[in-house]
Specification:
Elements: H1 4-15, H2 19-29, H3 32-43, E1 47-48, H4 49-56, H5 60-72, E2 76-81, E3 84-89, H6 92-101
Antiparallel strand pairs: 1-3, 2-3
Helix pairs in contact: 3-4, 4-5
């Protein structure tokens, strides 16, 4: 049987990680359409809904609905540019995770 010190060390291994945050991010990325949309924003930040829809071959409605949860969590932000909403990734951990997957930037 493990002693209390060993158990405490093992407990610290998961207590130092934002388990709930990472679970939410990974769940977010588990949807293939949403992952494509986020990769599109990662590659070229500052696109509007119509541009993301055109690049990813989905409807603007799908883009808007797919961005709802990432926006609510602060992972994607939008800002008004004229009459359009321009989107970009805002969560650095999500950004880094996309790099780990092999995602690149346009420049």
């Amino acid at each position: 049987m493990q002693d209390d010190r060993t158990k405490e060390s093992a407990r610290q291994a998961y207590e130092t990680v934002d388990v709930d945050g990472w679970t939410a991010r990974l769940t977010l990325l588990a949807d293939p359409t949403r992952l494509r949309l986020l990769l599109c924003l990662h590659y070229m930040p500052g696109l509007n809904v119509q541009e993301v829809a055109a690049v990813t071959d989905v409807t603007p409605t799908v883009v808007s609905q797919s961005f709802r949860r990432p926006r609510a969590n602060g992972w994607v932000v939008s800002e008004k540019s004229g009459r359009e909403q321009i989107y970009r990734l805002a969560d650095e951990r999500l950004h880094s995770l996309l790099h780990t997957m092999g995602a690149r930037h346009s420049h």
